Write the structure tokens for this entry.
Amino acid sequence: MGYFSVMTITKANIKWPNVPDVYNWLSLDHRGNWLIKREKIHHQGFIDFINMHYTEDALGRWFFQNGPQRVFVSLGYTPYVLSIKSYGRTTHFKTQTNKVIASFDQLWIDNEGRMLASWGRHIGLISDRDLPMLAEYLVHRKKPNDPIDTSDLETLLKSPSPKGDTPFIGLINQKRYDVNFIREYEVRHTFHFNPNPTPPDGATEC
């Protein structure tokens, strides 16, 4: 099967039973763009449809529910990509599916110098475009009244990351957040997701 058709979930779908799942077609890149076979999707209606039906299964595989069909997503890194949005004096993260994360648990820096935020059992990569803005909310752990500047953050992001705490904490919406180091390979295991779903043994790849 060389394509999949976007469907609206209606009673008509019942006439199409046993629809095979789709693998290795849809992907999410590091900036929150949806791609089909590495080509960026530009049609906003299609993007909105994917966002509305994006979810996960019990195995930690993320997919887009297309009527009776599951279109599994190959993740560039994490299931979510986050941007920083300010509403008056309040700052939130927003996912590529337009979900506002009003409350999160902590911030992370991985061994490739990427920053992430986690909430509950979920984690999202913070878009590199928003790192300068994020730097405005980071302060030195031992001197919380001493904000860092962009060069401080860039120096840390370029250095190999050990385990444990970083020299920084986040102060966002008058709350304090730890900023910890994490290895890239630890992210998928710690937050229990499969970045590259594959067809079951013996199944035909669509």
